[in-house]
Amino acid sequence: MKARGACGTKRHGLRLLAGFLLFCLAAAGTAGAGDLVYASGFERPAQERGGSNYLWYRVAACDREPYGVLASYHLPVPGGATTVRTLARQQLAAMRAAGQRRLSLGVHFYHGAGNGTLVDAADPAAVAQAATNLGDLLADVKAAGFVEVLFRFFPVDAINPSQANFNPALLDAYWHLVTALRPVLHAADLAYRIDLMVEGAPRDSNLPVPDPWKYPANRQWSDAVRDLWQRYVAAYGKADTVGFSFLTDADPARLRWRVRHMRFVYGGNYPYLFAADIYGTPHASETDRFVALDDAMRREDPNGVLGWRDSGWIIAEGYYDDPLAAANLSSAIASTQRKVFYLTQWPWDRADPACGPAPEVNVAPPEAWVVYGGYGF
Question: Which overall architecture, per CATH, does domain 13-374 show?
């Protein structure tokens, strides 16, 4: 989950050249109105065209925090002559014109005063404003021509079950935010799925017992997400949610423990599809991580009775407009034959070192869709 500040981006010529070459390869044919063709000429890696995580409308001086889309949608742009909503409409139009069709949106929230990105989940007025903003944002997303969104909950600090300082007393505020925003999504006349906690899938302790999945590595984390899941299914069912998305560990064993622990988290009532954030490193590429998650789901569900072996995925995050990531993910999908519905890139351009080696956000708005489009995502 992305939590640090960020800066403005500078495109690099080599990366753009690679993207242009992919675009030229893709332009040789079409796979439906306006679609690009998988650059290798073989089957497209994803079933539908994706897009971006659209969460910040600006980054400045390596800082994203004042510029959150959802929390600021009703406000004027700081130091500008326009409103965030007016600017966002322009950015959405540009993203759609670049070929994007689906978006990941979301809310960053905690217990405390807002800052342009963060919403105080314990403040009824702040939650009500976030709900109003979400309705306006979804209307503008639909008007721009997007057809689907993945809406993601980003808990921060003491309201985040994965953190050491998590306060279980704040779980009710977490749930209240879900109940305030989910009806807005449901009423928007736009296809959607909900990620109840970004990278929220916990793991077990890998104890040498017959059922190690029963033993959480972090009891507070596992109990909290299990509680949230039971509340959600009781209130709304499970048809519109991916549950809790996966962090894809570099260590395949730890990733398998996350998959195995789904028995504890979901209590046998699993989402119909799953979402994962997949970032490659020199030690574990996107291919490695994708294949490891696929292998874990197949090994833990060899007969397909749990639904994991044959489930579809959403790649909720990957590097921004990145040739290596696109090639690695395409290779992994081809080798595993895992069904991927779509991909939404994260606004982190790893070819831009201006804010250090790991700024985590350095692009706003995330307009480009050259490389992933060229690979058929």
Answer: Alpha-Beta Barrel (3.20)
